[in-house]
Amino acid sequence: MWRQCVQRSCFHFSSCLMKKSRTPAEQRWLQRQLRDPYVKASHQNNFRCRSAFKLLEIDDQFRLLQPGHSVVDCGAAPGAWSQVAVQRVNSAGTDPELPRGTVVGIDLLNIPPLDGARLLSCHDVTDPATQAKLLELLPAGRAHVILSDMAPNASGFRDMDHEKLITMCLSLIDLAEKILQPSGSLLCKYWDGALAGTLQGQLCGAFGSVRSLKPHASRKDSAERYFLARMYRKPVR
User: Fold this and answer.
1) Same structural domain for residues 40 and 71?
2) For the whole model, what pTM was predicted?
3) Is 54 a domain residue?
4) Strand pairing class (224-232; 207-213)
5) Which residue range forms the structural domain that includes residue 1?
6) Taken in order 27, 42, 216, 225, is the CA torsion positive or negative?
7) Are 20 and 130 found together in one domain?
8) Are residues 163 and 109 in the same domain?
9) CA-based angle 203:148:45, to the nearest 5?
10) Is 222 helix (H, G, I), strand (E, B) or coil?
């Protein structure tokens, strides 16, 4: 389905964008955007950014998001993954014949309002106060799925950025202990590198199944990958 959306869509940037004086780096970025079918598809399908197609592809294959599920979207801004989650778990009640789920989005940045999602803008997911709010918003204080497309601001030093993102992903295992229900799932973005094995090992200690994914919508020249961890079991301390 996600591939059909990409193939059908057609979006044209304003010609003034091309005429305006830009640096070479800006021109390269703009040309990449113009050629990117997922950028075009995101406009055509009213998604807030192209990353929606990464989650759509993964969910089409693994069926993480089911009607009635409760989902926590970490690093949610601008809200594309939350948009997908709202559709898939029926949290806006679009289909009255299906169970109605819950979507909670969290980000340090502002997240524009989204029908069907409860949004915690300007919140740190590692903050105990934020986690207390999550327990209040989630039915029975538990989530079926934790999603994370969050990443640190790039410093330009690859190893440093890699380490920061791995640390952020490790914090999600602590979050899972507080809010994820038994047999629940965690999907998190990481940048491939020396510490990826450490993260994978920690995930394997808490989940029955862990696999690394590179969706088609993830650019080939990017170190970006995703760990999909399923069948959560609370680790023994």
Assistant:
1) no
2) 0.84
3) no
4) antiparallel
5) 1-46
6) positive
7) no
8) yes
9) 140
10) coil
Q: Which is catalytic among the residues 54, 133, 189, 214?
A: 189
* Tens digits of residue pLDDT in 35-87: 556 667 667 777 888 899 999 999 999 999 999 999 999 999 999 999 999 99
Return the H-helix or E-strand segment holding 173.
helix 158-179
* pLDDT tens-digit series, residues 81-119: 999 999 999 999 999 999 999 999 999 999 999 999 999
- Tally DSSP H helices, then E strands, for the chain: 9, 7
Whether the Cβ atoms of residue 207 and residue 233 lie closer than 8 Å to each other? yes
Q: For the chain, how big is the Rg over CA atoms in Å?
A: 18
Same domain, 134 and 23: no
Angle formed at CA 94 by CA 93 and CA 95, multiple of 5 degrees: 90
Reply yes or no on whether 189 is catalytic.
yes
For residue 51, is it within any domain? no
Q: Are residues 95 and 36 in the same domain?
A: no
81 and 36 within one domain: no
> 86, 114 in Cβ contact below 8 A?
yes
**Does residue 137 lie within any of the structural domains?**
yes
CA 71 to CA 138: how far, in whole Å?
Answer: 8
Residue 119 and residue 156: Cα distance in Å, rounded? 30
177 within 8 A of 235, measured Cβ to Cβ: yes
Tell me the C-alpha distance between 23 and 50, whole Å: 24
CA–CA distance, 225 with 11 (Å, rounded to integer):
27
Secondary structure of 107-168 as H, E, C letters:
ECCCCCCCCCCEEEECCCCCCHHHHHHHHHHCHHHCEEEEEECCCCCCCCCHHHHHHHHHHH
